[in-house]
Amino acid sequence: MIKNIFLALFAFSLVLAEPSFSLIKKGEENKEAVLVIGGIQGDEPGGFFSANLLATEYNITKGALWVVPNLNFPSIVKNNRGAAGDMNRKFAKISPEDPDYKAVNFIKDIITHKEVAFVVHLHDGSGFYRPEFIDAKHSPARWGNCAIIDQSELKGVKYGELEINANRIVKTINEKIKDKEHIYHLKNTHTAQKGSKDAEQLNSLTYFAITKNKPAYANEASKELDVYTRIYYHLIALEEYMRIAGLEFERSFELTPKGIKEVMKKEIRLSLFDDRFLLALKDPRASINYIPTPINQQFSSNYQSQNPLVAIVDETRKGKKGKETNIYYGNRLLTSIRPQYFEFGHSLPAASVKVDGRDEIVTFGSKIHVDDNIIINSQKNVRVNVIGYENPSKKETDVKITKKDIQRNYSIDKAGKIFRVEFYEQESGKKDKFLGMFLVEFARLEALSIKQG
Ligand SMILES: [Zn+2]
């Protein structure tokens, strides 16, 4: 049986509002799986965005793929190497007091799981690795653009021909490089060998895997490259690793730096408060305000997204005054959100509307496309607020509303197309209770499908 996507969230953090990593299992169940890990260091976006694209934009049609795209999620949103130091030096030993303790132990359990066939660990490294010294940027001391193994083989273990397999990756990438400088090489760190220059790799994730008889490979893209070119090389490597394990797959975009850039602009959805409020983020405005929020609740403790690299973070940013609540896609700040507190009511699960003349029931927490106009049918004791809509009669129900009737700067997107329609329960003598909302995107469907197809 083919599973599409299975999201297991490991709530390992006791600190509220600290995002934790996800394990996404794709493809067939109970099959040996390739495990791909990204985001151990938060300043290596080529690695974590590549793993995330595998998780969200690939369909595994044969075999099994497990992906952890955001191992060190707190450091990803902060765009630093490690919020609590370098996590990739904590696999030989770690103190229970270390903030990374639970994450490291969880990922060790996943790596050593009996279904994991081998591990591919993604990094962005400095400069360009060369076996011989050429100059400071191209030398044996650099880590960019190479396939790394800790030793040449893991004897008697399936997929343990580390050098043979990593060389196959190097060859595959080099057939597709965009520039001679980008040429890939094999780097064998001989981690366990006496006098190894890279003895600190004894503390790394891949070497931990090796000691547990799990073949492990690292792929590095250079920090000299723009992020889309890094992802391009990582994905070429990952697709070849999947082929080595006999996986078959489909992807939703063209494997070029340009195709990657396009697919990463796709709308990102995030729902708040058990699907009562939806944010559909496609080039959103810098801030989205007056979001109905239950009294005594925080955004960061009650949200969901199908995209594992999306997080809501409460923080005080450098050079900014006061606390902010920010939505991140990896290390990219998408928007800031601000609450308006309400009691939540439960008397209505959906809204009755007419979209371009058709009767429809719209579930709260969804988005609909409107070609020209929408009419929201009135209901007893329900107040409707189309955010940004004003009309002299103060009526927002049973009237035809088109895009030009709504003030453009109230949209949640910069393009001025996506607007909020909110519903409140009214009872005389009491404060309004928030019931739910949906989003309206004014766009012709034909035009949309051409753009996205
Ligand atoms: Zn790294």
From TrEMBL:
Keyword Hydrolase belongs to the record: yes
Matches recorded under InterPro entries: Metallo_peptidase_C (IPR033397), Peptidase_M99 (IPR031489)
SUPFAM superfamilies per UniProt: Zn-dependent exopeptidases
Record-annotated D,L-carboxypeptidase peptidase domain positions: 29-263
Pfam families in the cross-refs: Peptidase_M99, Peptidase_M99_C
GO molecular function: carboxypeptidase activity
Keywords: Carboxypeptidase, Hydrolase, Protease
Residue intervals of the Metallo-carboxypeptidase C-terminal domain: 344-442
Protein name, entry field: M99 family carboxypeptidase catalytic domain-containing protein
Organism: Campylobacter magnus
